[in-house]
Design a protein that fits this description.
By secondary structure, this protein is an alpha/beta fold. The protein contains eight helices and ten strands. Strand 5 and strand 6 form a beta hairpin.
């Protein structure tokens, strides 16, 4: 099974002060996709520079030619499907059909309350996502959509001429629970995992591999329940959130070993963070570029 290697570039640099160069370098290094996080602010970066995901991706689309681009991940925390669909259709057009939408239910971070609302419970997040994703699917595939739901409404919303990619740009659905897995099975062209968060602090890499194996099994069942072949979905691992996150990035050999174990599970794409000095994502730039250019050849 062919493995792809991608990166996620956090939107922390001004476009004319290193921002553009990172996206262009990602293309030069041969990454399959360069993603960015769709947050209003995020974790330890909250009090520093942080730019919007969709404008950043629009700029990246005009600065690159072949590199796929996307979000990891967009959520209902501060997005509405009607306006998001229009922006995504436009972004897909500007990029010439190179956009992937990573999308999930969201969490309880800063985005959850930035608009002045109370943070949703896990059930409320799942409820919103369960309505948001099917509506977004319709908005990107139908010329006119009207909808009255528990959380979202649309009144003859139009997205003409539609996406360059047909029938719409691909969805990469982040999910671990049963409701999210069902949505991935119904609407996803890919599935995204960060592993099992309960293992991050005290688990082992071996336990993490087994947890991801179990997640892929649940995805397979969700697909089988609706008569879909799970092999149709790409399976994306966003690194940095499994036990000992820095260990695979110490050297090319360490990363090849890490990637090989996950490839054997059925993971088809591995995403590594672009290095950011003095952060959780600090690493040697030379090792990072060696991983980008030599890993796939070593895996065969």
């Amino acid at each position: 099974m062919t493995l792809r290697l991608s990166t996620v570039i956090l939107p922390v640099n001004r476009w004319h002060e290193g921002g553009r160069e990172r996206w262009q370098r990602a293309e030069e290094l041969g990454f399959h996709t360069a993603y960015t996080y769709d947050h209003l602010s995020w974790r330890t970066f909250r009090d520093g520079p942080w730019f919007g995901a969709l404008p950043t991706l629009t700029a990246a689309a005009t600065a690159t030619e072949r590199l796929r681009l996307g979000t990891l991940v967009t959520s209902p925390n501060f997005r509405h499907p009607v306006t998001l669909a229009k922006d995504l259709m436009s972004l897909d057009d500007i990029s010439g059909g190179r956009i992937t939408l990573g999308i999930g239910a969201g969490g309880n971070g800063f985005d959850a309350t930035a608009l002045g609302q109370e943070a949703w419970t896990p059930k409320e997040r799942a409820d919103h996502f369960g309505e948001f994703l099917p509506l977004l699917d319709r908005l990107l595939t139908e010329e006119s959509v009207s909808h009255r739901g528990a959380h979202y409404s649309a009144d003859e919303a139009r997205n003409i001429p539609g996406c360059v990619q047909r029938p719409r740009l691909p969805f990469a659905v982040a999910a671990t629970g049963p409701r999210g897995m069902k949505l991935a099975a119904w609407h996803g062209q890919a599935w995204v995992t960060t592993g099992d968060p309960k293992l991050f602090e005290e688990g082992t890499q071996e336990q993490s591999v087994e947890a991801i194996r179990g997640q892929i099994g649940k995805l397979g069942k969700a697909c089988a329940d609706i008569g879909r072949d799970v092999a149709e979905l790409d399976k994306i691992l966003l690194t940095g959130f499994t036990p000992e996150p820095g260990r695979p990035l110490k050297s090319l050999d360490a990363f090849v070993d890490f990637a090989g174990k996950h490839q054997e599970l059925g993971i088809t794409e591995i995403v590594v963070h672009w290095p950011i000095p003095d952060s959780d994502f600090a690493m040697d730039q030379q090792v990072f570029e060696q991983i980008a250019t030599e890993t796939l050849a070593q895996l065969g």
